[in-house]
Amino acid sequence: MSNEMKEGKGSCLCGKVRFIAKHMGQNVGACHCSMCRKWGGGPFMEVNCGSEVLFEGEENISVFDSSAWAERGFCSTCGSHLFYRLKKSKQHMMPVGLFDDHKSLVFDHQVFIDEKPSFYSFANETNDMTGADIFAKFASPAK
């Protein structure tokens, strides 16, 4: 697993939203939770871009308040998914397909593996975490 960070650039499908992720991770993850699958029709393939993401064309971004801790952004023109963002830390998980350069990325983890439907499976060997694993690792003790 690589912890290397680099700057990543990309855009939505129509190009009205462009972005620079100043600290883009190189590890790709798949989220199989029911919300991500409903949002995109399948697993959410994402890369962690931290909190420093600069958007051009912000007037074209709509944000959906999807839970008490996170929100999801999309282009209001073409509908491209732009980010899953944690409200407290402003950490952005961004769809890997938006980035112009994919060469150094490695698919290395899957989350909410216990919610993955049986009709698909990835061949890659990955670090797999259940929903309970995720909440135990990242959820704050105060609820």
DSSP summary: helix tally: 2
**Straight-line distance between termini:** 32 Å
Q: How is the CATH topology named?
A: glutathione-dependent formaldehyde- activating enzyme (gfa)
Shape: globular
Poorly predicted ranges (pLDDT <50, ≥5 residues)?
none
Task: Round the Cα radius of gyration to an integer and report it.
Answer: 15 Å
The CATH homologous superfamily name equals glutathione-dependent formaldehyde- activating enzyme (gfa)
Biggest sheet statistics: 8 strands, mixed
Count of beta strands: 11
Largest sheet strand order: 6-7-8-9-4-3-10-11
Describe this structure in words.
- The protein is mainly beta.
- The chain is 10% helix and 41% strand.
- It has one domain: glutathione-dependent formaldehyde- activating enzyme (gfa).
- The strands form two sheets. Strands 6-7-8-9-4-3-10-11 form an eight-stranded mixed β-sheet. Strands 1-2-5 form a three-stranded antiparallel β-sheet, with no helix packed on it.
- The protein starts with a strand and ends in a 5-residue tail after the last helix.
- The mean pLDDT is 93.
